[in-house]
Amino acid sequence: MNISAQFKGIIGPDAVQYVYDRLTAVVGDFLEADKVIDAAYGDRSTLVAQRIQLETEIKLDESDALMKIQGEGKSQYVIINGQTTYLSNEQIRDAFRRTVTKDKREELAKVESQLARIDVEIARAKDKYRTAADAADSLKAAAAVQAASLTMIGKAYEPGLAVKPTA
């Protein structure tokens, strides 16, 4: 079959092979992006459960600490490491509460930073997936043009038609 020069760039063997190769590559890009997304989600559920557990433990430990406050009004105090510490205002009471849960708060901060890192990895992986989807859409359009062109030329070559291709 002799293809007119005007169609060669669209339906020539090299053009068809190029679109086919790119479509194959895009499928690979989709699969790779999907694997990256799955891998990024891997530890997230465990870390979310750990975060919830730590938040609950912090609340309970702080409640226990507040229950150990003795005295009334500006005479409130607690005994920390054998020393009496007066809790004369709200800021000091908050500092006491946070001090009691310091280790768990630090652990919670580490868990939250890991979750934030995972969320960034997921966002990046989803961006790659969307990029692959955009490329696939473009390639599907090119393949559709090729298919329509090949169909049109194929019909022109059908026996009995008056239209004959140009050399």
Task: Describe the overall structure.
This protein is mostly helical and 167 residues long. The chain has one domain (13-154). It contains 5 helices and 2 strands; from the N terminus they run αααββαα. A hairpin with a 2-residue loop joins strand 1 and strand 2 (83-86). It is rod-shaped. The termini are close together. The mean pLDDT is 85.
> How is the largest sheet built, in terms of strand order?
1-2
H-E order: HHHEEHH
Mean pLDDT: 85
Overall tally of domains: 1
Strand content: under 5%
How far apart, in Å, are the first and last alpha carbons?
10 Å
Largest sheet: 2 strands, antiparallel
Count of DSSP-assigned helices: 5
Task: Extract low-pLDDT stretches.
Answer: none
> Based on helices, strands and strand pairing, what is the structural class?
mainly alpha
Helix content: over 70%
Strand tally: 2
Whole-number radius of gyration?
A: 34 Å
State the shape.
rod-shaped
